[in-house]
Amino acid sequence: MRKLVYYVGVSIDGYIAGPGHDISFYPVEHMLPWIAAEYPETLPAMARPHLGIAEAPNKHFDTLVMGRGTYEPAMLAGIASPYPHVKQYIVSNSIAGIDDPDVTLVKGDPLELVRSLKQEDGMDIWLAGGGNLAGQLLPEIDELVVKSYPVVAAKGTRAFDGDFQPTAFTVTDTLALPDGCRITWFKR
Fold this sequence. Notes:
alpha/beta, Dihydrofolate Reductase, subunit A, 5-amino-6-(5-phosphoribosylamino)uracil reductase activity, globular, RibDG_C, two-stranded antiparallel ribbon, 18% helix
């Protein structure tokens, strides 16, 4: 069975983005090459040619689930399909529609969506955020890949937001990068 993996970058204080979906404060000098080599499918199509990975095969994920807030920067830039190399599902009750056949707008229960996707054949499912959606999907999250950046945001979008749901995960691996960034893998 496929797993739902929350692959996410966070500040020291647990924010995935600052106000207005800002992620420009994250240091990426060492993280970006690591992502390009290890998780190329998590980079948007417009960035891939600049990193020399335009045609890189997917290594972990072939399906992406994200919320409106995570999708909004692409939508505002006029990009309907930011990750055409994976199946894209946007969970939102506030987006009227998406004019791209490669992107599926889901207005229903995200838990039902993920449970259905887990039954399909394929690679794992990447949960890209945001915090509200991650909070709703916490019962179905099997693994976390947390890219920790050595910076405090103090305000923005939390990695998880919603009801109090203490959920235990076990660290399975860690990797420290030269600039203080760290990647930690967790399993439920």
